[in-house]
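Support request, please re-run this one:
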Amino acid sequence: MTDLSWMPLETGRDLGCTLIHFLWQGLLLAALLNTLLPLCRSATARHNCALITLVLMALTPIATFLFLHDFVSSATVAQSAAGPSASRIAPWMDGAAMLWLAGVALLSLRAVGGWYVAQSLGRRGTFAVGGDLLQRCHNLRRRLAVAGPVRFLLSRRIDVPMVIGCLRPVILIPVSALAGLAPQHLDALILHELAHIRRFDTVTNFLLVAVETVLFYHPAVWWVSRQVRIEREHCCDDFAVSACGDAGLYVEALTSLEAGKAIAGLALAANGGRLKDRVARLLDAPAASPRFSLSAVTGLALAGLVAASVAMAAPASRGKDVMEIQPIRETHTLPPYPKESVHLKEEGRVLLAVTIGTDGAVSHASVFKPSGHQRLDVAAVQYVKSHWRWQPATRAGKPVASNTRVSVLFKLGPKPVHATP
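Re-run finished. Output below.
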């Protein structure tokens, strides 16, 4: 399928406009975070700022879409009797929306694959932890005040400790660590994984993956997500050092993992993030903080300006799209006034949501905003559905189904009067 003919005209248009708007919105949110991070003194504060920014990035497109959809629908009521206009969504906007949907589909498959790999680690090649090690693990859980049950399993398929699962978290301990690490080093790494569980990082990790999947096309989203992951590891390092009481011991445990590799996806491993930066931070050594290059900043600024310009121009084109559905005047006669409503002197304006088929007939009509009198509402719905006709909307020269809203006024006077804006 190469177009959006399967999607309602207004929905496809508003989706394309939302994607364009988020280019400058995401850049603005990332710039705000970049300003706030140096002002935060703790890893927890930086993590929370980055996480809040990511949540705002997730909510902003939803709010934008709802605003645009409501704005266009309201404009439809006011402008449905206006003159001719553009006949279809711009082809480049359709193409952009299709590419976005394809990207979301591919990254969704990637996320599902990562989840499957993470879950398989807990089911295959594992066996129970016994003896003194299990008792040590439970003591560490109590020391870190982790609420809820936590399972501990040994695994032959991993090189570093990691936590998987959300509702029933499992900490996997590599078999190689039993012989390759001193007991106090292994305890320090298990404390790091318990810190992930205590902080509910397994839950927020789903949010990160979801936002990265849906808003994959914006580099600022990946940058903010990376900041969340970096500060998440710093927070867990702080928990582990506080619990074991020896930063040097914990650093020795971390450096022993430098050759290990974390599993990408929904598993949280002890060697996540940049180990050199984490070690330097724990030892209070100066670490080079990554900065945007001048060319990158200039490129993002130009992209933001272009996106803002296109977005500002979008309302004009939306207004034209709204007016493209032209009523066939001779068919838009006024509904007869219900006799009982005349007797009871019922008046009011009915706002209807209608779906116009490819033949211009009304395939569906429902009350969007009632008049306050059910008889008037029913009369308007039945008459508009059976008698009103439009010139059908077109996309790429072909008729397509579309949605609009119409208003019918029932007002008593010397003789019943009805009007449609």
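Confidence is low (pLDDT under 50) at residues 72-89, 259-265, 313-323, 416-421. The two ends are 37 Å apart (CA to CA).
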